[in-house]
Amino acid sequence: MTGSGAVTGPQLLERERELAVLAAVVDRARQGEGGVVLITGEAGVGKTSLVRRFLADADGVRSRVGLAEDLVAARTLGPLREMFPDVRDLHEPGAALAAVEAEARAGPGPLALVVDDAHLADAATFEVLRSLGRRAETLPLVLVLAYRPDEVGADHPMRRALGVLVGAHVHRLELHGLSEGAVAALAERSGLDPARLAGLGGNPFYLTEVLAAPDSDLPGAVRDAIVGRVHGLPAPTRDLLEMLALVPRDADLGLFDGLAADVTASLERAERSGLVRVTEGRVAFRHDIARRALEASLPQSRRVHLHRRILGAFEDRRADPAVLLHHAVLASEDDAVARHAPEAARSAAHGDAHREAVTICGLALRRPDLLTHAEQAELHGIAARALYAAGRLPDAARSANRAVAIWERRDPSDPQYGAALLTSARMQTMVARPDSSLAQVRRALEVLEPAGASPLLATAHEMLANLQSIAGDSESAMGSAERARAMAVDLGERLIAARSDMHLGIALAGLGEDAEALSTLRRSVETLALLDAPEPYARATGAMAVTLVWWGRVAEALEWLDLTDRVASEHGFDLLRLHGVAIRAHAHTLQGRWDAAEAALRPLLQVDLGAAINPLPLAFLGRILLRRGDADGDRLVDEAWPLALATGQVRRIAPVAAIRTERAWLRRDPGAVRSLGEHALDVAAQGHLRYLGGEVLRYLRRAGDDVEVFPGCPEGFAAGIRGDHAASAAAWEEAGNPYECALELAESDDPAIAGRGVTILDRLGARATADRVRQDLRVRGVGPVPRRSAPARATTALGLTPRQHEILGLVARGLTSPEIADCLYLSRRTVDNHVADVLAALGVPSRRDAVATFRRHEQSARTLGSAEPGSE
Ligand SMILES: Nc1ncnc2c1ncn2[C@@H]1O[C@H](COP(=O)(O)OP(=O)(O)O)[C@@H](O)[C@H]1O
Ligand SMILES: [Mg+2]
């Protein structure tokens, strides 16, 4: 099916618009600005026909076509390997991507790359399609994906691949059945009563079948008729067709030699029956609906028997392990499953086809007694990594532990035992079991050390460094990272050396060696970029951002987060990306962009980011809500605290401890500020987390403690602690941190200055804080300060902020607060607060009045032709 060939076929009905879209995309692609065309619709609606027609008509367009097939676990990069049979070593997404790009650029003319039945493809293929989808815009490439949307459920990997396919270069062609008019015309041409075709929904496949043999008029009846036609054929032909029905796509003609008697004659008869089509030495049912109908009609025992015969034939021709595994499973041949699964699993793992790897390992490990110990351990290891990549962390940790247990029982001196321990240790960190992680890394060191320097041993030292860092033992972490680095350099392992640099940088940051930490991290990032190692690169840029954020260097941190986000999004490193989203939200909180932070954090609460990351979004969102006086804030912070403690990580415990300290201050509980604050300070100091240290120290001061500023304390906190509120506020203004600035201004005895602080708090929507500060001012006799009012950052003609304007617009459209909250990813409470502010700003008593004002305004804006900024 490669090459556009001479498939011309009959004219298609009612597909002019779709063909025009495809032609237009081709025209742009000729200029080097390619595109993506997604063709969707039910089976038989005409997706494949549309693609064929398009390819036949497209002049000067080169094409490569791949078909995905319905196997128990899809072939790794199946459609792409089919498109590029000439490219060897097409075993992982990077190689496939390079092959497509090279072919697209080779010219002459643009390249049409078609994946038919794409919903059946493997995860590695989706990975490639995702990258291609983004790059098509700048290549002479038309990427065409035909698939059945009903097969693409919420957790289907294609969802994620297609989710990123947005933009003007992406076109969706939703195919529907033919119109009543077209159906009537068809019926008339064949002298048929159009009413006979009414129950077919205009589906061209069923229409074609009924027109050819007009004795049935419903899809089920058409399928029965197909099966009936097979039954009417001589036994050898029927036998052959039934076998073909169990081969998910097509078979080469030679497959049946030895499987059936008189193959040539049987094939000929089958072809003449019109049920199958023979092209280029391969035979297939005319349509998959017919194949499935026949398959479904076979008794289970017959299917098992036929799968056994097919398996034998495919084994003789050394077919792809995924194909062998498919027939082995459906033949219920456990021995054969055990024989083929390891190879299929390796291929899936090598290609990053995670979903398939998980399926295959699961199938094979149902009968561990048929596998060697080494195979069992290997499959558990593959499953662990694939589950991890799929974000199923607890399952991943369990699988990794099983691999460890198998080696332990069998041969604890095997370096593979060491490797299994390291894999498992990584998973243990992710599920927040730092103690077992540490124990496993130490055990790995014992196992690996006797054999001397090796990449695995260097990796073990690197991981030890990581664990020591997160536990706050930066001194030891530095030693381990240096050992790892030196060994890696000796071995010429540049990647491990660069990763060790990252851990060295983190350790240096933990020791308070700022300049050296930054230069080491930078060196790590640069080397990882050169080595084209996206995963550790995203990690290292993320580490840089996190380090800077905990020092309060927010603007720089945001720049590094952009890099993390770009690479993690492009490569689908979801956990890294979402961790970045959480850190970014925290940075935005420091900058006073609370709505943005809240909108980013809310969806994170719906995902399992792993026990090691989960506490962050809870705590970050909890803090915003606490300040806003939203009762949910308490719940979130209380939820975050034990989770943070369980991680054993300084960079998890310290932030939540600091938030708890702040809450105690908001609640006017100086005793709690003191006890919580001292602990928080300890943890923050352990990791030299200066911003947090300063923040907590400042609250201790507010609680009346006589505290001393530590070296490197952010200037805003230091000045505040010294009692120089003006200098402190100026420092915070300079740093772009309105919340801390407001708190310091509010300490002033000058009512005008204190009032400015209160106004800032109102503008941030920090109701709880503002209430507390107003009370303090009253008690101190400073006043008058502004009464609570609508925010001063009005920018729209109605005197509303863009956010308020947006929310009022939704109210006007009849949405309730919970609906608006859902739609904007805000809490209900926040929405209610916004609505209250809107009423105050408009000076009206009710939502209805606000909506009336809004409508009046819209009306006059329309007549004046003025545009209104409606969103942030
Ligand atoms: N627009 C059309 N007009 C007439 N016949 C069509 C049309 N689209 C498809 N067909 C016929 O319907 C059958 C099924 O179409 P196909 O492209 O294989 O569907 P799909 O790929 O969506 O399952 C084909 O035999 C084809 O000849
Ligand atoms: Mg099709």
Automatic annotation (TrEMBL):
Keyword ATP-binding: yes
Keyword flag Nucleotide-binding: yes
InterPro entries noted in UniProt: AAA_16, P-loop_NTPase, Sig_transdc_resp-reg_C-effctor, TPR-like_helical_dom_sf, Tscrpt_reg_LuxR_C, WH-like_DNA-bd_sf
GO cellular component, one term: cytoplasm
Pfam family, one: GerE
BP term (GO), one: regulation of DNA-templated transcription
Gene3D superfamilies: P-loop containing nucleotide triphosphate hydrolases (3.40.50.300), Tetratricopeptide repeat domain (1.25.40.10), Winged helix-like DNA-binding domain superfamily/Winged helix DNA-binding domain (1.10.10.10)
Gene Ontology molecular function, alphabetical: adenylate cyclase activity; ATP binding; DNA binding
PANTHER family: TESTICULAR SOLUBLE ADENYLYL CYCLASE (PTHR16305), TRANSCRIPTIONAL ACTIVATOR DOMAIN (PTHR16305:SF35)
Protein name (Swiss-Prot/TrEMBL): Transcriptional regulator, LuxR family
Taxonomic source organism: Beutenbergia cavernae (strain ATCC BAA-8 / DSM 12333 / CCUG 43141 / JCM 11478 / NBRC 16432 / NCIMB 13614 / HKI 0122)
